[in-house]
Design a protein that fits this description.
single chain; ABC_transporter-like_ATP-bd; ATP-binding; ABC_transporter-like_CS; six-stranded mixed beta sheet; nucleotide-binding; binds adenosine-5'-triphosphate; ATP binding; four-stranded antiparallel beta sheet; alpha/beta
Length: 207
Amino acid sequence: MNNINKTIKGVSLLTDINLALESGHIYGFVGDNGSGKTVLFKVLLGLMHKTSGTILVDGREQKDLMQDVGFIIERPEYIPYYSAKKNLEIIAAYRKVADDQRIRTVLEMFGLDPSDKKAVGKYSLGMKQKLALSMAFLEDPKVLILDEPLSALDADSVQEARKRILEEKKRGKLVLIASHYPEDIQSLCDEVYWMKNGHVLPSKENK
Ligand SMILES: Nc1ncnc2c1ncn2[C@@H]1O[C@H](COP(=O)(O)OP(=O)(O)OP(=O)(O)O)[C@@H](O)[C@H]1O
């Protein structure tokens, strides 16, 4: 990211963000509510236009990272009256990257039962978060952008999900994660970026 700026109606939400992130690493983004973590993730994903600056992938400028990324931003998008498996089947049908076995695998990875017929609209908060994780991991993307991915999970599920995220790192994935839970950040991240008022402060914590 080179000099990324985002301004809305004269208000600066991101100021001169310069970061070089490498595959095979997990980067944590921490900061107070409203410090700009989600806006930064949205700009990277192309869900929000940047005002200026460039995003380079392997040295080549790219509009955003949407091509090969799995993400969790705010609420998951799902069809409430379908089961988890049916929801994943609908996503998988677009690009035909994930087959039936992959759908079952990602659901089980996060503790959901592929044969559960319950409509996801009736899921608990934690179950919806597991669905969101399954969706993000579904197509085995090179990049994972995860905004508060574990906040609603029970203790065992948090441990399991952390293990899964670390496995992705070992498989060479680039993971960006925003969390208010110091334990998530400490147990997962190679490097931590602190955000304040739309600025990334110099890194304070390195493993
Ligand atoms: N569409 C928008 N229009 C105007 N301002 C916005 C918009 N989206 C976000 N903001 C503002 O940008 C700032 C950063 O918000 P952001 O959601 O990135 O914070 P955050 O660090 O993710 O916070 P939290 O920890 O609460 O999730 C906030 O002041 C917010 O009000």
